Model the fold of this input.
Amino acid sequence: MQYFSPAKVNLSLAVSGVRADGFHDLDSVVTLVSLGDDIYLERAEQGVSLTISGEGVEVSALPTDLEQNLAVRAVRLLEAEVGYALPTAIRIVKRIPLGGGLGGGSSNAATVLKGVNEIWDLGLSLERLCELGARLGSDVPLFLLNGTVRMQGRGERVERLSLAGAKPLNLVLVNDGTHCSTPRVYRALDELRGAENRQNEPQNDEKGLTEGDDFCNTMALSLQAGEAQRVAEQVFNDLESPCFQLFPSVRQTAEALKAAGCRGVLLSGSGATVCGFVDDFADGERVLAHPALQKSWRASVQTLPDGVMAAHGPLTPIVMVRIHVGQPVCLQRLEQN
Done:
């Protein structure tokens, strides 16, 4: 079976204080885009094997220990759930940059959870898969729901936003290759806020957010209408300022996208990928031709409709994606019986 494992973009990301478990509370509207990895799953006679190749992205930085890979950990979690081995051959063709704030690893884990549940006829419900996915990472449940979602808590509370018939939005994604350590970015945010004294304050004073319900509804309406300008005016990310302070080159990428004429510019997740809103594919190509962006990985994408991961069998995205390749292709194969 072949599955499309899409990237995500945080259209909003509000971060509040540190929880008792050490994580931060989040409130985020997240959508999926037409950039994604392809995952091939097949029943095997024994053990779990994993083959990873990169198309336009570097994959040599992936852990060499098979058991550290989120895709393999997803299989192990399912094996523990059902109480018997699930020998599976996994092949991943990666197009999502590693550690770029686009959720590639979490998307892969969610896709494997859903796919292995299917090819082995495990019969686990979507609700149970989401509970298992939350153990693997905060972003995993949102990929299991697919479409556009509101994510809260540590990421374990997800709610699908109804956007049936919504017009796709056009975006450009740019990543200069900077490794933005997520823990460092969160620590920098805490330092900027004086987290030890502000754990219970509203997460985004500038936007006037408290519970975030009104904002979320307004964003959903703008997305439903496909009004790119209104969406671009509403986007924000609490992690943007600390990321820009820690990694000046990421700030320079954002400035270059603004100079190139994007409607709005936003950091995705904790970085380093920066997103820009454009009118259409041709406008995206014009923006990505900006001289300051030529040494970076770049992609022109669209937001995806609901249900992109809910297909059975081979699935090909129906929207166009163009990736400007700037990094070498590498191959990694890992096996363990």
